[in-house]
Amino acid sequence: MKKPIAVLDLGTNTFHLLIAELNEDRSINEIFVEKKHVKLGEGGITEARIAEVAFNRGLEAMQDFKRVIDQYDVTEVYGTGTAALRTAANGQNFVDQVKALTGIGIDIIDGDKEASLIYRGVSKAVEIRGNAVIMDIGGGSVEFIFCDEKNVQFKKSYPIGAARLMALFHKSDPINADDISALHTHLEEQLADLKKNLFLYKPETLIGSAGAFETFADLAIRKYGLRDRDSESGYRIERTQLQSVINDILLSTHDQRAADDKISPVRVDMIVTAAVLTSYILSHAGVRNVMLSTYALKEGLLYEKLD
Questions:
Q1: CB neighbour list of residue 188: distance below 8 Å, 6 or more residues apart
Q2: Using CA atoms, how far apart are residues 15 and 87, in angstroms rounded to an integer?
Q3: Residue 277 in contact with residue 179, Cβ under 8 Å?
Q4: Would strands 15-22 and 5-10 be described as parallel, antiparallel, or unpaired?
Q5: What 8-state DSSP symbol labels residue 144?
Q6: How many C-alpha atoms does 152 have within 13 Å on its Cβ side?
Q7: Closest Cα to residue 282, out of 243, 224, 232, 245?
């Protein structure tokens, strides 16, 4: 008899728990899904540490997850930690305390492994046609994966996550031209090799992986009333629609975003720097199509373990 497994993705902003099994057709049968907006990077991400308050929030979230895992009688549990844990001086201490409190082992993975798992998850959610670039905006890092329907051509993780950029550059409300200009200068420095790869691989499609792209898509759907499903786990939006939604975000105030039910509380301010970053990529990439995959790292980890 098939037994479900639990996978955990401990991100800089959000901790995810997925308990699932594979169906006969290799699709995911989700038994339980939950996310907690832990904001592990809050108060310490630019100092490469997890602040005490965030540290304790993370431990509480993991203990809650452990109770759920036990309720479902799951014995196989796999967890990954990404940017916040791999860059924080006290990241391993957090992992050790999670193990002591819950018995759950967390594997702190590097950016290359993170990108590989994201690709695995995304490729199960959308049909990749021709050259594409997957973009996954986390709180601490952003992964870019150049690929086609058969192979990964190039992948790399960059330390330019939305929480990190927000702490460094989002000083005005609404964000002003000076903040955007400073952020662009930073991106020019950080993404010099990415621009070379955009020219080399010439992706025709940008695939946004979960996170901020889910917010962009929800706002575009509300504004334009269109939802072109590619699968149960992915869909398409027009490039012009995405850029229009980004422009709306950049003109909005904190209070306007906080009152918008399409923007989750954890993204009220981070969505602004995510929007600047995405607009920057659109301006340098000659992509004609934009897709969203609701699958990302945790689904990639699930497929890796179940396969």
A1: none
A2: 17
A3: no
A4: antiparallel
A5: E
A6: 18
A7: 243
